[in-house]
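SEQUENCE-TO-STRUCTURE ENTRY
===========================

Subject: a protein chain together with a token-level encoding of how that chain folds.

Sequence line: the amino acid chain in single-letter code, read from start to end.

Question of interest: how does this chain fold, as expressed in backbone structure tokens?
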Amino acid sequence: MSEIIDDKTVPAAGAQATAAVAQYGTPAHLLAVAVQRGASLEELRELMALEREWRRDNAERSYSVAFSAFKAEAVRIVKNRGVSDGPLRGKKYAELYAVINAVTPALSKHGLSASWSITKDEKDWIEVMCSLRHTEGHSESVKMGGPPDAGGAKNAIMARASTVSYLERYTLKAILGLSEQDDDTDGGRGLDELLAHWIEQADRAMTTAELDAVSKQGAEAFTKAKDVAGYAEFGRVVTGRRRALKGSVNA
């Protein structure tokens, strides 16, 4: 079946409909004309499917353009809090609110927004997903998980809240492709954040099995980054954490 649009004959549905869209306008326009011409239900279904696909493609392109524009803003996340004890003593990091405050204006400027959801909430494991969505509907997401942060004098609720905040911070930075900087300059080797992340993961491990998994994943990350010095420091932390865990079991 064919339809008359602007005094030209074009296909109403099927494989040739895509070419018609390129030549005569949007699928919505073709669908409206098809309805006026009394197209069959099957032809209307094909055009509706084509319109949905067309909208998805446009939304994905708009997301890509917006994300590129966001990256061009060169957003700077400043490490605002220092660590006073533990294996990260002397290091600094950006708290979640500092990351959010840094990125939100630029995200909103380009029609982007971030949100989180807890995708797994088990006794010994919590998983958080961060989604980045554009106003036209396309979204992308990343997930990260970890055990409750039982370090320090935290109760059960505080331990879980600490892990959720930690995962929200890292998944947001991951999906945006951003890292933190010191107040004055990024300085250092540019790999401090990688080391800080895996030291914190090792410190969160509550069993030797969890520590073994962290050790293996961390080794792969340092190997990929070609960070020999960081890997050596990470190894010392893992060894110390392993002794601590075995000591608590034997106590």
